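Sample A.
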Amino acid sequence: MIARVNICVADVRAEPNNRSERVSQGLLNEIVQVLGEAPSFSMVRFSDGYKGWIAHQFLCPHDKFPGDGPYIVQANIASAYDKPDISSRPIARIPYGCCLYGEMADGFLEMPTERWGSLYVEQINLLEKSEIAPLENLMSDKIVIEAEKFLGVPYLWGGRSFFGTDCSGYVKAIFARFARELPRDTKEQIKAGTEVGRKDVRRGDLLFFPGHVALAITNTLFIHSSRLNGGVAYNSFDSKESNYRADLDKSFKTARRLLA
């Protein structure tokens, strides 16, 4: 069966119970293949091949999306209202990167949902799919601008959104904004792109460490979601800087380039 996530952020568990480890998250309208059932949970597979358990109530059967789209949320968090008026009641907060569908009129997307009925999202918070520049046509500055939107977002193991993210969920979200789907975990992300020597690292490269990934801002400065930092922040390989991370400097494994 094909299903889709019907809530803004749905936890994906290692086992079919709410006390099991959160291994990832599904975002609103993500399509999944249901592979199996357990009491209150479904085993699902995402488009990148990642598998896990999602509670039944956070999924609905999927045939086709209503209306036009996708419209991609470009704001950190987009409010969804019960009327096409920002002074009306907000019903949901939809995170960066979600794909929405519906009808656009008078500056709002009217979006039918199974959970809340029709909701309205300001057009200014959305991008049409045609506005998304392919990764191969981008300058590295574009990637960094998107990455910096997440500064201060708290660290959350298994997280993939502005409400909280881990390191691999963070870089996955950033590159998805440019239609490049990365695998969910660092052990697979490290195979993407082409290898780059440490001395040749430049803006926009991915930096890998044991079980960890970061995005290069310069040859020495990088941004990442780190448990030690409490979330998304800058760190440096330069021992003279106050944000120097000796542990990552010493444990650096490789860099990978996804941009031309």
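Sample B.
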Amino acid sequence: MQHVRGQFPSLSKIFYIVILAAVLLSGINIRCINPFAPAFDDSPATGNDVLGDQTTIEGAFINFKLSYTTQDTLLYGRLLAPDFVFVYTDYDRGIDVSWGRDEDMRATHRLFRSVSNIDLIWNEIISQTGDSLRASVRRSFNLTISFSADDIIRIGGYANLQFQRRDPETIWRITRWTDESNF
């Protein structure tokens, strides 16, 4: 009896088919792992996490600092409420100037793109009032903006921030930021 090539499957093919069938029928969970699209980590947060827990005011301040130091507009944008207002004093003209969320995002994006390094240090909380849905925090800060090794701006002062959220389980968002800095 002569064996005609291709007429019968080879033993290695049969072996792989049997293994595949055994795995599929046994209920073993085989996962493909893509290093460029890792699975979402839904484990509880620990004290070693980089991002702050924005369901707390302190977590919002951690994320604010992180957004500036990493120059991350997405993280920064997550801090701002849709009706956000930024207010600062134009000392040259002697007036308060304000703008909304869209203009603030554009200004922050331009700032992040034009600098080589930003360092934000949140200092002590001067005052904090509010409840589980609204809070007002006045906090001192030091901000160092480096455009180059020779061009560094240091700003100090206070940020008066108004926070709000829908319910105690949602994240805090900034609705109003009144800048009380020396810049």
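B remarks: Residues 40-48 have pLDDT under 50 and may be disordered. The radius of gyration is 27 Å.
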